[in-house]
Design goal:
It is a single chain. The protein is of the alpha/beta class. It has two domains: 9-256, Aldolase class I (TIM Barrel, Alpha-Beta Barrel); 265-331, Type Iii Antifreeze Protein Isoform Hplc 12 (Alpha-Beta Complex). Helix content is 33%, strand content 15%. The protein is built from eleven helices and ten strands. It is elongated.
């Protein structure tokens, strides 16, 4: 089953990014989470991803403590899933345990397996039995670990597996992004689509995501925030950034075109006019022989190509040919 039919499929990783804005504006976490979903929809994002239940996540990555009371409830997530459906977006979760999977499976469209759980075979086994597409983060993983996770999934499911290149460093320095690994994943796992989760420091041209798309990533994911000034949000995108990546990837689609090298329709006029043909270098009389000394190569390319010169050398001319005229096969005997 392929739901990632928009290339690239753009995901706003909301995670816990509702937390700081809710505190600042004295709003509920649910209100801000819903607002984030709405903003994602308005700027062309195709799906949203929530980290669910990982109270250690912010502490490990940002030094911020998050207890259970600071997180959304199962009912909140179910309402958000319904809201995503209304907005035409895909609802994705990154669950931390089996209990979360069981409680939210009826509303989840896609699961993401975090890099921290790439070797958590019991969790991967449980998720894959739910028969949903899976985004598999490959951060800090080697090829064998990736293959082991894939094998576990495929033992239970034939749904899409998208291998997500990312780097387990927050924020990721640009020199650590290693986007060429996208090509390596494509080469080593030819049966699977490859995507990219971007945690690089912000650049206003969205160059990392654009390059990833150009290297073959068909799913692009980046944290989404309402305010990049918050600590820990400096590698997130906002609405304007999402619009930029959409413009960039649309331009890529236009300029990349087709892979197979062949003359293009737009080149046909110029091809005929800028290429050269075999012409008479001087007046050639009927009965004379075509030699290298009495022919030349000039535009346009509507006559015999210079590449065919051997096919006319030594031929006898059967009519007078004036200087500069195209030489045609029916002029020769």
């Amino acid at each position: 089953m392929r739901i990632f039919n928009k290339h690239p499929f753009l995901i706003g990783e909301i995670s816990f990014n509702y937390y700081d804005f809710a505190k600042k504006e004295d709003l509920s976490y649910f209100e801000v989470a819903k607002l984030l979903v709405k903003k994602c929809s308005e700027c062309g994002i195709n799906g949203v991803n929530f980290h669910v239940g990982d109270s250690e996540y912010l502490h490990c990555n940002y030094g911020q403590d998050l207890n259970q009371d600071d997180q959304l409830s199962y009912d909140d997530y179910k309402q958000l899933a319904g809201y995503c459906k209304e907005m035409g977006m895909t609802f994705i979760i990154t669950p931390v345990n089996k209990e979360i999977v069981d409680n939210l499976d009826d509303v989840v469209e896609v699961y993401k397996i975090a890099s921290s759980d790439l070797d958590n075979i019991p969790l991967i086994d449980h998720i894959s039995n739910k028969q949903k597409p899976i985004l598999l983060s490959t951060a800090a993983a080697n090829l064998k670990e990736i293959r082991d996770a894939i094998n576990c999934i495929e033992d239970n499911s034939n749904f899409d597996i998208i291998l997500m290149h990312s780097v387990l460093s927050y924020p990721t320095k640009l020199e650590d992004a290693n986007l060429l690994m996208i090509k390596d994943l494509i080469e080593n796992f030819k049966d699977y689509d490859v995507g990219y989760s971007d945690y690089t420091v912000f650049d206003d041209l969205m160059f990392s995501l654009t390059t990833a798309c150009n290297y073959g990533a068909v799913v692009l994911e980046k944290y989404f925030t309402l305010d990049k000034s918050f600590e820990g949000h400096e590698f997130a995108m906002d609405e304007e950034d999402a619009r930029i990546i959409r413009l960039n990837t649309s331009m890529l689609s236009k300029i990349n075109g087709y892979k197979n090298k062949q003359p293009l329709i737009c080149e046909s006029f110029s091809r005929n006019n800028v290429r050269k043909s075999i012409v008479a270098k001087e007046n050639i009389k009927s009965g004379e022989t075509i030699t290298n000394s009495n022919i030349d190569f000039k535009r346009p390319g509507k006559g015999i190509s210079p590449s065919k010169v051997d096919s006319i050398l030594g031929k006898i001319v059967n009519r007078d040919i004036s200087k500069g005229s195209l030489i045609e096969y029916d002029m020769l005997s």
